Task: structure prediction
Amino acid sequence: MLSGVKAGLVSAEVLRREQQELRRQERSNKHLEEESKHSQTVFRDKSGRRRDLAQEQLEKKQKDEAQSERDEQYARWGKGLAQGRQQQQNVEDAIKEMQKPLARYIDDQDLDRMLREQEREGDPMAEFIKKRKAKENKEKKGLAAESLLFPLLFSASLCRSNGFEQQRFARMANKKAVQEMAYKWSVEDM
Result:
């Protein structure tokens, strides 16, 4: 039989001896059983060396943290950095607005500034200001150092001219700038 006792018709004496022998073997193996209960399992790799599971778990945890950090960064990039900053700015603005009192009076500087900064469709004054700023920027780009030098020479005295000289120097500077740009364009492919 599998338990080690004899099969078939057996006398009581033989059965008693076999049972005593089995008990003796169990008692001799009892200390091995106790030792194996409290021992740790030894894990080995393919080459037969012991594996350090604690070190492997630590490395896996660090690797997972780095991967999750990378995934989080890619998720932020996927949503758009500018949109994220805009959303953060909107949240900060909302918190700032919540801290203000509910009633807003006519002398509220924040409200006044906000209303002035808003651009409304069809506002004729806003269009006028944009055109004026564009014109000023265009003039500043067109004027060279020579055109600015002449009025500075005579700024100490009272100027009673009609602006002819200033216009002449501006035309000369503009002509020189156009010639220089044309030259640069002509030699660009060389």
Observations:
- The two ends are 102 Å apart (CA to CA).
